[in-house]
Design goal:
Blueprint: H1 13-26, H2 30-38, H3 56-64, H4 76-85, H5 90-93, H6 99-114, H7 124-129, H8 132-141, H9 154-167, E1 174-175, H10 177-180, H11 190-200, E2 218-219, H12 220-231, H13 236-246, E3 253-254, H14 256-272, H15 280-291, E4 298-299, H16 300-304, H17 307-318, H18 320-327, H19 350-365
Antiparallel strand pairs: 1-2, 3-4
Helix pairs in contact: 4-6, 6-9, 6-12, 9-19, 11-13, 12-13, 17-18
Length: 384
């Protein structure tokens, strides 16, 4: 990882010693050391600046390390090493064709939660503000990787990948609008699916290719972001994800015109079920009262102020099933959530509960003979 490896994969002791000394002396905390180790040397400094012969490259690094940013590909060696060594992933080591899918899932989940700037690059401040290093440390203590629900859970990976596999009919590891429309039996409106593919939330990253995927296609990594946002709309990233989709003119305000644009399709879908929908004027008044926002429109901060209400707001506009579930719920049932809370009293998020439920259903429905991760005969890699 930019440490001066020889072509045969070996590392000279003096080179490692200089690197280690500089790591301890020039990186003030765990976060900066973590970034320095993972950094491949391609982001801000030229690879030749790490020449170990005279140590000048290391001096330059000490000046510029705060400018280093980690891309998704920088995490691949570390996550692959976890696959190769963690005792809780022994069964996955026996199926190398699925290593890239697990690695992609973990990296995508890391960036989903940690990359608050949405740049596709992690900076030192983002690492320091996150819980990433604490979760990585838990890997050394826990032999069951599924107890680490953030980032590394195999069960969560299994659910995500199976959901993607069901939609990816031709198994080219890319899905389009028609494929995504099948998620949860057409629960999402056509308008919101169209907005997802307009490029406001898709990154087009794939572990096997440096080329960005063309518009109109969703990679597996993008699907990870989608399903995390769809099944838990209370997180900061999910709120930002859907806000970007709804903000048609990109002015940072969801106007009544924009909200009505999305609600109109939802209204027609409700009517098709023989249910009389609320007219938009009443819906908009409820939104303004509920979020305590300006009649001029909804801002991102209005939604982040109360994640539970934000989730209801989004479902009202484009997820028919979840909207009806909320409208028909028992008013005396306790949800375990309140203003500003993303987790229940048990510490589980909406995503944790969804993944746990879906995992049990998938295991119950699938026998070992037709299990997607045990039958790789029709698995195809993306052409490079």
């Amino acid at each position: 990882m930019g440490l001066g490896l020889q072509p045969n994969g070996t590392l000279e002791f003096m080179c490692f010693k200089k690197f280690y000394n500089s790591l301890i002396s020039q990186c003030p905390d765990e976060a900066s050391r973590f970034m320095r180790i993972l950094w491949t040397g391609k982001s801000t400094l030229n690879q030749t600046s790490l020449d170990c012969s005279d140590g000048t490259g290391l001096e330059k690094f000490s000046i510029e390390f705060k400018k280093i940013e980690l891309g998704m590909s920088d995490f691949v060696p570390m996550i692959q090493d976890i696959v190769d060594t963690h005792p809780g992933l022994g069964f996955l080591r026996a199926a190398p064709e699925f290593h890239t899918r697990y690695v992609t899932t973990v990296i995508s989940r890391i960036f989903y939660k940690v990359n608050r700037s949405w740049t596709g690059k992690l900076n030192l401040s983002e690492i320091r503000r996150s819980n990433l290093l604490q979760v990585i440390k838990r890997l050394e203590e826990e032999t069951d990787v599924n107890t680490i629900t953030e980032y590394f859970s195999y069960e969560h990976f299994y659910v995500i990948y199976c959901k993607f596999w069901e939609l990816d009919k031709d198994h080219d590891l890319l899905i389009d609008k028609a494929d995504l429309a099948g998620h949860n039996e057409q629960a999402l409106s056509n308008l919101i699916i169209d907005r997802i593919f307009r490029g406001t939330v898709l990154r087009g990253w794939d572990m096997n290719s440096t080329a960005r995927v063309s518009q109109g296609k969703m990679t597996y990594s993008d699907f990870v972001w989608f399903i995390l946002s769809e099944e838990d709309k209370k997180t900061s990233t999910a709120i930002e994800y859907w806000f970007r989709c709804l903000d048609l003119d990109g002015d940072g305000i969801l106007s009544s015109f924009e909200l009505q644009h999305f609600y109109r399709e939802q209204e027609h879908r409700i009517e098709s079920l023989g249910i009389e929908p609320l007219d938009f004027a009443n819906v908009f008044c409820q939104i303004v009262d509920m979020l305590r926002c300006s009649p001029k429109g909804v801002r991102l901060k209005d939604l982040k102020r109360n994640p539970q209400l934000a989730s209801n707001f989004f479902n009202t506009l484009f997820n028919l099933d979840k909207y009806l579930d909320h409208e028909q719920r028992d008013p005396f049932a306790t949800s375990g959530t309140g203003p500003g809370l993303e987790f229940s009293d048990t510490g589980e998020s909406d995503w944790d509960r969804y993944a746990s439920t879906e995992y049990e259903l998938l295991i119950a429905e699938e026998s070992p003979s037709d299990h997607v991760l045990h039958d790789s005969s029709d698995f195809e890699e993306i052409p490079s």
